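By convention, each integer encodes one residue's backbone shape. The lines below illustrate.
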Amino acid sequence: MLIKEFLPNPVGADKDGEYIKLFNDADKAVNLAGWKIKDASGKAFNLSGSLESKKELILSASQTKISLNNNGETISLFDAKGVLMDELSYVGVAEEGKMVMNQKLVQIKSDLQDGQILNAGFAPSAAKTIGLSVFLGIILGLAAVYVILQLERKLDKNLY
């Protein structure tokens, strides 16, 4: 289970648009009985029901009675045993209409484009690039020495 995102400063009245979105990243449904979310001030909301695999649960401010701060906020998700399962926060002033998103999910999404993995992760490393440059430099140097030696032999003169 993850906190997928939350919207602390919606366009318009905060109480009408604030929400917290949870996401079940597990391969099976999760029983939410006993689970809770808390904000930075310690205000808590008890969850119930279950959430199917790969599904979202959107909790509005009117549901949770949690008023999200517009100037820094932390939302924490605890399982039925009180173990912290996820936490999502931001610092500074929340821009109106901008949600706070879980970077774990954002990273996965940005690595995919049109269903294909981007090859950015497969760019050559600096060490490989430098190693190749040194290797090519040695080869070109040896080739130059060979050409000079061949010219010296033909001209019967020392060029080097």
Summary: The longest strand covers residues 84-93. Residues 124-155 form one domain.
